[in-house]
Amino acid sequence: xxxxxxxxxxAKIHLKALRTRSLYILFTLSFTMFINMFCFAQELPNPxxxxxxxxxxxxxxxRVDSLLTNPQNIREIDSVTTDSIPxxxxxxxxxxxxxxxxxxxxxxxxxVNRTTLYNEAEVTYTDMNIKAxxxxxxxxxDLIYAGRLKDTSxxxxxxxxxxxxxxVIEPDSIIFNIATKKALVFNSxxxxxxxxxIAEKTKMENDSILFIENGKFTTSENLxxxxxxxxxxxxxxxxxxxxxxxxxxxxxxxxxxxxxxxxAYFPMTKKQTSGVIMPTPGQDLGNTxxxxxxxxGGYYFAISDYFDLAVLGDYYTNGSYGLRLESGYGLxxxxxxxxxxxxxxxxxxxxxxxxxxxxxxxxxxxxxxxxAKANPNSRFSASVNLGSSRYFQQSINQLNLPSTQNNTLxxxxxxxxxxxxxxxxxxxxxxxxSQNTNTESINMTLPTFQGSVGRMFPFAPETGSKKGAIxxxxxxxxxxxxxxxxxxxxxxxxxxxxxxxxxxALHSIPVSTNFKVFKYFSMSASTNFEEAWTLNTIDKFEDExxxxxxxxxxxxxxxxxxxxxxxxxxxxxxxFDFEKKGKDPKIQKIRHVMRPSISYNINPxxxxxxxxxxxxxxxxxxxxxxxxxxxxxxxxxxxxxPNRTYSSSMGISVxxxxxxxxxxxxxSATEPKKIKLLNNLNFSxxxxxxxxxxxxxxxxxxxxxxxxxxxxxxxxxxxLDPYALDNNNRKVDRFNIDNGGSLFRLTSASLNLSxxxxxxxxxxxxxxxxxxxxESLRNGGRADDLFGKPQDFADQRLSDEENGKQDDKEEExxxxxxxxxxxxxxxxxxxxxxxxxxxxxxxxxxxFSGDVELSPRWSVGASSxxxxxxxxxxxxxxxxxxxxxxxxxxxTFVPFGPYKSWNFFVGIRSNLxxxxxxxxxxxxxxxx
Length: 928
Description:
The chain is mainly beta and 928 residues long. Helix content is 5%, strand content 52%.
C-alpha cells in the first residue's frame, strides 16, 4: 500500500481505496477457475501406449498314438529352393558416411584407433555438422571430441559450432556419440526464437531435446557480459517449441533479484500462437478515486496466418471497466487491414456523492487497403474513425495528446469499378462520416453513388490529331446520388438519426472545347447542363396567428439549370540576366513566369421554380404585392436551390513563379544551381456586370515558397477590399480611395511558417518513420509531434520505435560525438482581421517540438508552444528516455493543463518478454 498524506479525509480515502465490488470479483474468480478447468495448455498430452496381446503357451501336451506307423527316414527335396521373404540384415553401427577435413592435417593413429583433425576442422555425419579448431574421432568408442585452439599466449580461438537439424550451438567443447546421436556440450550458446540460452553444461538427447544445467536465458546482444538474464538451475529445451525450467530468478549484471518463479515455461515457437496476455496492476492516483485496477489483460487468438484477434480488458475496483478488440488481417498481393473496437464504462467517485458521474465512451477504427495489382479495374478501401466525440479526451487507458486536439473524426468506405471500353464507364459507391468533436454534430452519406461516362469527341476525325474548336468539342455524363443524414452524438446508431435524412441525385452533362487564338492564347468555352432530383421539398404559408409555417413534403421533384463560361489565357516568360563580361555575380539569372487568365460566366435566373405567399396583418388583411414572401420549394434540398437572379461576371487572375540561377559553391560544378524564389504568387478578383452595386470582388493574394534548402515552408495570403466602410462599419458602394483612404483596404491576412531541421539533415540522411506518428495520422491528427507523441498503454509498440532497429545503428565509438544528434520542428501561424475596423490579431501562436540525444543512450524531448494572442502556453509534453540496451526506460510528463499527468515505464525491449515491465502513472483528472 502506498504512503498517503494525512489529512482530515484520511479515513474516507482509505475506505474508498479498499472498497470493491464483490459481485464483480466473484465473477472474475469464477471465470478464471472455468478457464483453468476447461482450457488446454500449449500442448496436448501424448496418447498412452496401446495394450498389446501377450503370448502364452498351451498347457495341454499333444502326444502321438503308439498304434501309428513309425515315420520312415525318407529324404526329399523341397520344390521351393529360396524363401521369398529375405532375412533381416543386421543393423550397421553407422547410418551414414562420416566426412571430415582440416586445414593443417588429418592424422590417423592406428594404435589407439583415433583420427585427429587440426585447424579449421569439420566433420559431417547425416544431419550433424561440427566445425572447430581441433576435432578428435575415437573409432573404437564412436565418440567425437571437438574443442578450441590455444596459442602460445593462452588465447583460445575457433570455437566449435555444432549443428544438428535446426539446432545450432556454439560451445567451448563438445563430445558427440555417433551411434546414439547424443552429445555433451560445455559452455554453449544457442539462439532460440529471439532469445539466447547460455549453459555451463548441456546434454543433447537428440536434435529436439536438450537438458541444461545452470543455464542463462537472455535477449541481450552482449552475450559475454549480458546486462540481464534468467538463471535456470535445471531446464529442458525443445528447440523451436518451448523451454521448461525449475527454480528461476532474474539477475541484473550478475546481481540476483527477488524476481523469480519456482518453475517457468517459455514458449519458443516462431509461429503465431494463442496465449494469455498478462494484465498490469496499479492504482488510480487521479481525483476520480477509481481505486485499484488491472489493465490490458486478456487473450491473444492466433486464428490463422491471415487473421488474428486480441481481446483486452480493464477493471477498476469502483466498477469502471473497459473492453478492447484488436484484429489484423492480410492476404499477400491481395489486401491487408486492421480493425479495433474500444469501449469504456467510466464511473467517478462514489454513488450517492454529489460529484458522482457515470458515462460510456467508445471508438471504432477500421483500415483496409487493397494491393494495386490485385485487380486493376476495381478497388475497395476503408478508413474508419468514429465513436464518442469525447473519447480521446476521456479515455482512461490511453494518453494520445495529439488526438485530444482533433476537432473532426472522419470515415470513408468506398468501392470503385471501371468498365473498360470506348467510352470508359466508371462507378463508385462510398459511405462517408464526418463528426465534429466540439459540437458533437455528425454528417453521413449512406451511401453516395457516383457514375460517369468517359469524355467523348463526336466531331473528332477518325485519324490524326484534333484541330479547331469544332473537332475539340467534347462531352461527358456524370451522376451523383446521395442519402445524407445529419444527426448528433446522442442519436448515433439510433432509429431517430434517419428522421431528417435527405435523398437526391444530380445529373450533369458538361460540354466544352478548347482551341488556340492568335497563336499564343489558349481559349476554352464550356456549358453545363444540370438536373437535380430530390425527395425532400417544402411549402411555406402563414397560419391564422400570423406565424410563417414551413411544412416538409416528401415525393419526387426536380429542377433543371444550365450555365455558360469561357476563358482565355496565356503564359509569358521573362528573363533578367545579371551576367556581364568579365564578372561572375552570385545571382546570374532570374526567370519570371506569368500566367494571366480572364474568364466570363453567365448564370441565368430560373424564376419558374419560385413561389410567393401573401403576408397579412393582425386583422387578417393582406398587404398586397409589396409584402409577398418569395420562396422555392427546393429550400433545404440536397443539392441547393436554382439560381434566383441573373448573374454575368468576369474573373481576372494572374499566377506568377520566380526562379533564380546562382553560382554553385562547388567548384567542380559545371552548371549554375537553380533555386526557387517564389513557388507561386497569385492574384484574383471578379467583376459582376449584372450587379446593382459593389460590382468588384475583393482582390485575393496568396503565395508560398520554401527556403533554407526547402526546410522552411512559407505560405501567406491576404484579402484587399476596394470599397469603403460607413460610420456603422458597413460596406458601401464607394471606393476606399474616393473616401480619403488607400487604393485597397486590408480586411484579412494570414501567415504560416513550418520548419523542420535535424542533425541528419547535414548528413544527407532522411528521417525514419515513427510508429507513434502513424498512430496519430490514423486518428486524424497531424503528421508531426508538435502536440506531443502519442502513448497508448494498451500497445507499448507506440513508444518502442527503436525496437527492432538496434541492428541498423552504427557502432558508437568510444569518444562520443561532441555535437549530439538533435531534431527540431517549428510551426508559426498568425491571422489578422480587419473587415469591420476591428484591427485585431485573431490567432498568433508558435508551436515547437524537439529531441536531443545528450549521450549515446540518454535523450530528452519536449513539445509545446505559446499563444501570443491569449498569452499562454499551448499543449506541453516533456519526454525523457534512457536506452538500457536490452531494456528501455522512459518518463513523460504533462506539467499543466486539462491533461496534466505523468507516466513512468521500464521494461524489456524484446517482444518475447515485453510483459516483464514496470508501469506507473498518474492519470489526468477526468472531465466527464
